[in-house]
Every structure is written in C-alpha cells, then in structure tokens.
From TrEMBL:
Keywords for the protein's UniProt record, in alphabetical order: DNA-binding, Transcription, Transcription regulation
Domain of life the protein comes from: Bacteria
PROSITE patterns referenced in this protein's UniProt entry, alphabetically: HTH_ARAC_FAMILY_1, HTH_ARAC_FAMILY_2
Database matches in InterPro entries: AraC-bd_2, AraC_XylS_family_regulators, Homeodomain-like_sf, HTH_AraC, HTH_AraC-typ_CS
Domain HTH araC/xylS-type: 235-336
Protein name as it appears in the record: AraC family transcriptional regulator
SUPFAM superfamilies xrefs: Homeodomain-like
Length: 338
C-alpha cells in the first residue's frame, strides 16, 4: 500500500491535508486489510467462486471529514459491514451493477442510481467483478451539522435518509460530477485542489451537496418517519467536542456547555446519539489519531506524541481502546506508512 500526502501535513488535529492511498493486489487478505483501514474495521470481503481473477484496485483520498475511493475487485465478491456508527456512506458504480441490502431494503445501484447508508444497520453487498465504483464516506457529525444548518431546525440523529438517489437528474448528477472532479484533481496533484484552503472548501461542497441531494423528511411532511428531535443542548456539546477534541473535557464541563445537568445530558446523548458524551468524545479522538497516524511519516512522529496531541494522557488505556476499535495496535498503523 502506498500513502502519499498531497500537501505538507499540518501539525494540529483537524487541519486539512488531502492524502492519497493506493493499492493493487491479487491477495484477498491484503485487499481486505486496506479496505478496513481506509473505511471500516468491522468489514468482511469474501470472494465468490473462482479466485483466479481476483485483482483488487483501490485509489483513496482522505480529507478531513470525507474519504473518497475508486474501488474494484476484478472478480465476484460478497462484502459484509456492521453498523457504520460514525459515518454516512454512498456507493456510486462507474461500471456494472451492485446489489445492496441495508435495513431491510434492497437497492440495485448502477450508473443511474447510488446507494445510501445510514450509520445504523448491517450492510450486505453482492459485488460482481464488472463493478467499479466510487465509495464516499462522510463523517456523521459533518453531514448532520450541515443539514441542521441548512434547514435551521432540529433533526433526528441519525438522519432519516432515503436508501438511494438518482444520478442522472439534478441534483444527484451535479453532486456526482463534483465528487468525480474533486477526486480526479486530487489524484493528479499539484492543482488548486491540493492547497489546504481550496481542498477544505471543496470538501465542504461535497458534504453540503450531499445534504441537498439525499432524500429526507425534514422541511416537509415526515411521511411516517417521525422521531425524537436532537436537542440544541446535544448539538452545542457536539460542536464543542468537534471544535476542540483534544481539550480535557469532563462530564461536568460538557454539561456546563450544554446548560443542563450531567444526568440530563447523558440521557439525551444516549437517546439521540446512541452513546454517552465521553464515549463519543473518546471515539472522536481515536478517529483523529487513526487519521493522523495513517498519513504521517513514521520517521518524524511517534504514537505517543500523536495520542497526547489528541487528548489521551494514559497511553496504556489509549492503546487498548485503539486496538479494540481498529483491530491493530497504533504502532502498526504508523509502521504501515513506511
């Protein structure tokens, strides 16, 4: 696997620095490990039938809250993914047809229709060797904040999104063209898209464009999709954690930001986010460490300094939590950059 920073990497968490990773392999285990590292840990890739034609190709660009990849396997495979938890996801075939099952709904995705995934519910994919697609991962909080801001109203978390959208009509056609242009420019390198400020704006356009493209019930009749609104207290707390994830927040600190008691905030988070505030903060920090280790030069940084920078002060507990989330120790993630 090759990981190529497209710009000079910044020294602080959250700064924009597009990074390109690529892999071509005929080894199923190597392809599986690449996809787990780029997208999700709880992911299975199993060839169907003859493996002789298996030839994985992956080009992936990671930029802050989004990850875009062009992926193909060369032979028929079956993919199983557990709950995405922290992300929304779109699969848009460039060739072939993908059969997708998610939350009781089957979608046939092709060049005319993209499949959309919420952060809850297992995903099963029948992926033929003829299918090459764009895989777009968007951080859960980023899309939810964008839709919340665009509509200026409280929304359900996770978002009540449709299972697919049309790619041949606006706005789906426009969003797909934007993603392809963004992805292509970053792969070619040396253009304006590789500059952090421009890349950050382009990333924001991808997120806001998706918020305006996917089907949702907000701003109109919910059609039976009603759910509890996410309180402003939860939103304020999420915004504070994403703005300064390395800050040593306590439960009392977060409750003070929200303007409610600790127990009230904890119950609100369990109801509307699915976990406690401090659990969410730990996952946010782990994702930040993982992203930084994945794109850093192992000769210039070490695991301890990255962990401290993201707010982890007990390295033993950090290492255990990291391994539980990603399936490998943090040092292995950094070594794979060599």
């Amino acid at each position: 696997m090759v990981g190529v920073p497209l710009t000079t990497l910044p020294g602080t968490p959250g700064a924009d620095a597009p990074v390109h990773f690529s892999l071509d392999t005929t080894d199923v285990d190597e392809a599986r490990a690449f996809c787990r590292r780029m997208f999700y840990g709880p992911l299975r890739v199993d060839p169907v039938g003859d493996r002789s034609g298996f030839a994985f190709h992956g080009d992936v660009v990671a930029l802050g809250s989004i990850t875009v990849g062009e992926i193909s396997y060369g032979s028929d495979i079956r993919v199983a993914i557990a709950d995405l938890e922290t992300s929304y996801h779109v699969l848009a075939p460039l060739t072939g047809v993908l059969r997708s099952r998610h939350r009781g709904t089957t979608v046939l995705a092709d060049q005319t229709r993209a499949a959309v995934y919420r952060p809850v519910g297992d995903i099963d994919l029948d992926w033929p060797g003829s299918c090459r697609l764009l895989s777009v991962k968007v951080e859960r909080a980023a899309l939810e904040r964008e839709l919340d801001a665009a509509l200026d109203q409280q929304i359900v978390s996770p978002l009540l999104l449709g299972d697919s959208f049309n790619l041949t009509e606006a706005p789906g056609r426009t969003w797909m063209a934007l993603v392809q242009l963004f992805f292509g420019e970053l792969l070619r390198g040396r253009g304006l898209a590789t500059q952090p400020r421009m890349a950050g704006r382009w990333r924001d356009m991808v997120v806001s464009g998706l918020a305006l493209t996917v089907e949702h019930p907000y701003g109109e009749e919910p059609h039976g999709m009603r759910g509890p609104n996410r309180p402003r207290t939860v939103k304020r707390t999420l915004d504070a954690m994403h703005a300064e994830p390395w800050r040593p927040f306590t439960a009392t600190d977060l409750a003070g930001i929200a303007g409610v008691g600790v127990r009230v905030l904890q119950e609100s988070f369990r109801q509307h986010v699915g976990m406690s505030p401090l659990t969410y903060l730990r996952r946010l920090r782990l994702d930040g460490v993982h992203a930084e280790l994945s794109r850093s030069d192992p000769w210039q940084v070490n695991v301890s300094e990255v962990a401290y920078r993201w707010g982890f002060t007990h390295l033993g507990r950090f290492a255990g939590a990291y391994r539980a989330r990603y399936g490998v120790p943090p040092s292995q993630t950094l070594r794979e950059r060599r």
